[in-house]
């Protein structure tokens, strides 16, 4: 338990450093500006709700309603990058980075990645073909 907590804390620290370095190197500043203006919280909450509802089958009725609200709000935010596969991928990467501190274990990271990869299809957008959601050489 303590090892996984330390591992999650280290991953979060490295993610913050990675995000800072990426911004300093100026990769596609247009996308970064677009993503910085977006509110990705509904996307993050939508995915976390889906994971929690999968684990708690007794609350599925309540889950369906709030999950749908977050999904709609998320899709509205992602519309800004719908036609730009590179920016869509960067938005997905940002969502992953934002949520790293909430991941309790490797299984939850895998669930989050799976849901994140399905997010564009849930919004009826075309999914990025080659979107790298890897971290430090290790796939979530």
Question: Descriptors for this entry?
Answer:
140 residues; mainly alpha; two-stranded antiparallel sheet; 71% helix
Description of the molecule:
With 140 residues, this protein is an all-alpha fold. 71% of the residues lie in helices and 3% in strands. The protein has six helices and two strands; from the N terminus they run ααααααββ. The protein has helices at 2-25, 29-37, 41-55, 60-78, 85-99, 106-122; strands spanning 134-135, 138-139. It has a two-stranded antiparallel ribbon. Helix 3 (41-55) runs antiparallel to helix 4 (60-78) and helix 3 packs across helix 6. The two termini are 19 Å apart. Residues 136-140 have low confidence and may be disordered. Keywords: Disulfide bond, Signal. Belongs to the 2S seed storage albumins family.
Concise synopsis of the structure shown:
With 140 residues, this protein is mainly alpha-helical. The C terminus is likely disordered.
Structural class label: mainly alpha
**Subunit arrangement of the protein:** single chain
Radius of gyration: 15 Å
Indicate the percent of residues in helices: over 70%
Order of helices and strands: HHHHHHEE
Strand content: under 5%
User: Can you count the beta strands?
Assistant: 2
Main sheet properties: 2 strands, antiparallel
Number of helices: 6
Low-confidence stretches: 136-140
Give the strand line-up of the largest sheet: 1-2
SSE arrangement:
Elements: H1 2-25, H2 29-37, H3 41-55, H4 60-78, H5 85-99, H6 106-122, E1 134-135, E2 138-139
Antiparallel strand pairs: 1-2
Helix pairs in contact: 2-5, 3-4, 3-6, 5-6
